[in-house]
């Protein structure tokens, strides 16, 4: 992932069907400086650590089938460009719906969560 983060003009990143593997993701310093759209779908990710400096241009953050992810980094809410956070079939995160809505009030949307 550190090589992808260094692509200076990368605006859209869609990580689908275990394209990202591992239990933890800590972005490298000064990466993803132009990334506007991030989709993470079907992953075994449990811990995601990030600061608002790691993704300064985020607009939508879309998480689908991230059943093991424990939390969204709190610093994501400080990203000035952020427009929305969508959760679809993220079992553990959907249990924290009230907390997430209070942390990211204008951005938070929940899709289907059985």
Automatic annotation (TrEMBL):
InterPro entries: LRR_dom_sf. Gene3D superfamilies: Ribonuclease Inhibitor. This is Uncharacterized protein.
